[in-house]
């Protein structure tokens, strides 16, 4: 899984220029990850939700754009999507362990 993030900022406004921060974020899944996502019907799982914006496992492959004059909000979006992707990666790894085999761990 590769998370691709593009951060940018620009000055907007006719008279009073205001800095607006933006982030474009998307993911590329490996063939194996895509296969597990499809077999477990995880495409609709929500990774991040804010107001009308819903980032799901499926839609993140197409990419999402967020912009705001609030840098803290943009940072929060990135952190939550990144955390959602990490949780998804763990879920995919754990789900393949449920194959009837024995696992032994030294603790």
Written overview of the protein:
The protein contains 2 helices and 5 strands. By secondary structure, the protein is α+β, with helices and mostly antiparallel strands. It has one domain (2-95). The strands form 2 sheets. It has a 3-stranded antiparallel β-sheet, covered by helices on one side. The radius of gyration is 18 Å and the shape is elongated.
Percent range for β-strand residues: 25-35%
The level of helicity is 25-40%
Large-scale geometry: elongated
What class would the helix/strand composition place it in? alpha+beta
How are the strands of the largest sheet arranged? 1-2-5
Q: Roughly how many Å is the radius of gyration? A: 18 Å
Give the N-terminus to C-terminus distance in angstroms.
29 Å
Q: How many separate domains?
A: 1
Low-confidence sequence ranges:
none
Mind describing the biggest β-sheet?
3 strands, antiparallel
* Order of helix and strand elements from N to C terminus: EEHEEEH
Total strand segments: 5
Summed up, the helix count is 2
Write down the overall mean pLDDT. 93
